[in-house]
Amino acid sequence: MNINCIGILTSGGDSPGMNAAIRAVTRTALCKGFKVKGIYRGYDGLINGDVHEFTTESVSNIIGRGGTILKSARSKEFMTREGREKAYQTMQREGIDALVVIGGNGSLTGAKTFGDEFNIPCIGLPGTIDNDLYGTDITIGYDTTLNTIVDCVDKIRDTANSHERIFFVEVMGRDAGFLAQNSAIASGAEAAIIPEDSTDADQLEHFIGRGIRKSKNSSIVIVSESPKCGALFYADRVKKEYPQYDVRVSILGHVQRGGSPSARDRILSSVLGAGAIDALIDGQRNVMVGIKNGQIVYVPFVDAIHSEKVLRKELIKVLDELSI
Ligand code: F6P
């Protein structure tokens, strides 16, 4: 298939580094003789024709900015066949021959369905703070968010020490514990409660069983977000069962998604963005461009979306041993 014009969009929860990826896709494509069109507000923009041609200036001075200049959305309409029909009509009207989609699991699922249905070359870039996409060692935004969390926990530690308190700090990650486990290691937290490790109750028992605050001024437990048992749930349990302890909760929330991307995220986004255009030139379609052991890899959407990215169990052991 002859590709002249490439459309680019960001979708789902934003992540620091998305702008650097938009810049890399745009500039690499222009360098290699393609036209580029920016699609605003994710798949909703594709449905509604919210499309603007991009020049190299369209992406000037954005490499260091958090968020996404293209805006983002989780489109309900795109989940319907009628919505995707409208999106396809926009592609035809705008002369867009291929799509680069920057987003997480749901966004790449949409790209796969759309690509299959309308025979459109779609390339995905792993844009999510959760780091939960299979086939890539790291996702765009994960490193920045990890650093943001560690910065927050360092600050919480100061006040926790002063008041000799136990803090339950809730972090994002959806169903994955990468942010929780690694931020716990990096901030010297006493424990992490993550979905990948046995049952949540066991993890709390384990932490308590070791003897809270026997020799420490404070304790910090990083808790992976969960609709049923987040940080508030654990704090309530400890308050009830151990009224002698002074317990507080800090839910970090969307502060974790903002901010200027780290150098690592900017480089990752730049390399993957360039990789997306190379993938299209290679005749690839329906793949996510990822990075494995420093090498660019093409991961079929079906694997990136459906295979489980495993959290290395030795990370649990490391935290356990270092937090005695
Ligand atoms: O997938 C990214 C993420 O930030 C998750 O960690 C979190 O569960 C979710 O998005 C929050 O979504 P929203 O921005 O809709 O509140």
State the helical fraction.
Answer: 40-55%
Q: How would a crystallographer describe the biggest sheet?
A: 7 strands, mixed
Q: Which word captures the global form?
A: elongated
CATH third-level topology of the largest domain: Rossmann fold
* Gross CATH architecture of the largest domain: 3-Layer(aba) Sandwich
Q: What gyration radius follows from the Cα positions, in whole Å?
A: 21 Å
Can you walk through the features of this model?
With 324 residues, the protein is of the alpha/beta class. Helices cover 42% and strands 18% of the residues. The strands form two sheets. It has a seven-stranded mixed beta sheet with strand order 3-2-1-4-5-10-11, sandwiched between helices. A four-stranded parallel beta sheet has the order 7-8-6-9, sandwiched between helices. Strand 4, helix 4 and strand 5 form a beta-alpha-beta unit. Helix 1 runs parallel beside helix 9, helix 5 crosses helix 6 and helix 6 packs parallel to helix 11. The longest helix has 22 residues. It is elongated, with a radius of gyration of 21 Å. The termini are far apart. The model has no long low-confidence stretch (mean pLDDT 95).
